[in-house]
Design a protein that fits this description.
The structure holds 2 protein chains of 2 kinds. By secondary structure, chain A is mostly helical. Chain A contains 6 helices and 2 strands; from the N terminus they run H-H-H-E-E-H-H-H. The longest helix of chain B has 21 residues. Classes of the chains: A mainly alpha, B mainly alpha. Chains A and B meet through helix 1 and helix 2 of A and helix 6, strand 3 and helix 12 of B.
Chain lengths: 180, 255
């Protein structure tokens, strides 16, 4: 008899515990996290004719460098670059690089200082032989290959950009700039 | 000569002012911030929360539900998120309140509702002046939650491959992301976990800590984790532990 009572009490206790759990919102996020996973670091070879002096390509690279996304961008994007894209049948703002959030560079407005200053990059890093185009391309595509714990964003392995777009951003960074 | 020096000085000062204005808060912003510090717009939500708690039986009923003396309630509230035996899981304050509402025969507010934000803000404000007393070693449940939270904080993901750590690790806090200073979440001046729910001046609304996490996720293109998910609660455990020992002050006031 005593035993029955204990068993009943235990059952009641677990029932009550279960009851609380069933009224508390606690959705599992495992699937969301799996879909959001960052693939391992990847080494890339710069495509042929990647670095260009074509003003329009550089203008697109520059626009991607200085803007966060198509919704926030105030100026009109250069030809060949959209403000909105269709993803899975839905119109969404196109994401840009927002590199200026971390890097200062010629003409930057409100730049951050988490990453190195990229002023005069051509003179200091390319012409001096410190960096190759391939290095810069890889840094922008997936910086983890150079620095495993980098704080920099990953731009190609995440498919945020196409190799073509990475080329245009790289071309902008290494270009000779007029403004201060 | 003197004149030239003073012109140079004025010029230099001018530059300094411009540089200052580029930073996140202008003089006008700062004046507004000072004023709001004394008169936090979120106070009305907290008061609304007080009324909601009254409808549920007040502090007395809550203390009873939690199995603590009413005078010990503030100190107990300062220990959240925590494991609660009769619930059987690690819960944040709002989830505990869902269980409490159910116990009082009421339909629990949704975690994303503004009623829950108000209720949770008021209940947390009961612990104002108490020090954050989370215990991540209290039991294996808390230890696991802490480990999971650390993992969530350091996990790089999303379209830009960023983690919370990318912007809140000791080696970058204090640096500037565009015009915002990256906050050290445990710093006594920030003490994130001790100050949320807080009023965000830039959004004109009060948000809970988990909702603030979601805003960072959205900005940095990390998939938003749902409120109350074990992963999100774990993240709250981890971030709360950063501010352990700091005095609670609800509602906070943030940029």
């Amino acid at each position: 008899m005593k035993r029955v009572a204990v068993v009943a009490l235990c059952a009641l206790a677990t029932l009550m515990a279960k009851d609380y759990k069933s009224v508390i919102e606690s959705p599992d996020a495992t699937k969301i996290l799996q879909k959001d996973r960052l693939p391992p670091a990847k080494r890339y070879t710069m495509p042929k004719n990647c670095i260009t002096t074509d003003p329009l390509a550089i203008a697109r690279g520059k626009y991607i460098f200085h803007n966060l996304n198509g919704k926030k961008a105030k100026t009109k994007p250069p030809k060949g670059l959209a403000k909105y894209v269709v993803v899975g049948g839905k119109k969404k703002p196109k994401q840009y690089g927002n590199c200026v959030a971390c890097h200062n560079i010629e003409g930057a407005k409100g730049p951050g200082n988490i990453g190195p200053d990229l002023h005069n990059y051509k003179k200091h890093f390319i012409d001096s032989g410190v960096r190759s185009y391939q290095y810069v391309y890889q840094q922008i595509a997936d910086a983890r290959v150079h620095i495993p714990n980098t704080h920099m964003t990953i731009n190609l392995t995440t498919k945020l950009f196409t190799p073509q777009e990475i080329c245009e951003i790289t071309s902008y960074v290494v270009s000779q700039k007029k403004e201060k | 000569m003197k004149k030239m020096i003073s012109i140079a000085l004025v010029l230099a000062l001018g530059v300094a002012v411009v540089a200052e204005e580029k930073l996140s808060m202008t003089e006008a912003d700062r004046a507004l911030y000072q004023e709001m510090l004394e008169n936090n717009p979120a106070d009305i939500f907290v008061e609304e929360g007080a009324e909601l708690l009254d409808e549920l039986g007040g502090e007395e009923a809550l203390a009873k539900f939690l199995g603590v003396k009413e005078e010990d309630l503030p100190r107990y509230i300062a220990t959240f998120p925590r494991y609660i035996d009769k619930i059987g899981m690690v819960v944040a304050l709002d989830q505990m309140l869902q269980a409490f509402m159910y116990d009082q025969g009421k339909k629990p507010y949704k975690l994303k509702s503004s009623e829950m934000d108000a209720l949770a803000a008021f209940v947390k404000s009961l612990a104002n002046g108490e020090k954050i007393a989370i215990d991540v070693n209290a039991n294996e449940h808390m230890q696991k939650a802490y480990e999971l939270g650390k993992e969530m904080f350091e996990l790089r993901r999303g379209k830009r491959g960023l983690s919370c750590n990318s912007c809140h690790s000791p080696d970058v806090v204090g640096m500037r992301l565009r015009m915002q200073i990256l906050p050290n979440l445990g710093d006594p001046k920030v003490k994130a976990a001790a100050t949320w729910p807080a009023y965000r001046m830039t959004k004109g609304k009060m948000f809970t800590l988990q909702k603030r996490f979601q805003q960072c996720m959205k900005n940095a293109l990390l998939a938003k984790l749902p409120l109350g998910s074990p992963q999100m609660v774990a993240l709250e455990v981890y971030v709360t532990n950063m501010a352990k020992g700091q005095e609670i002050h609800i509602p906070g006031l943030k940029r």
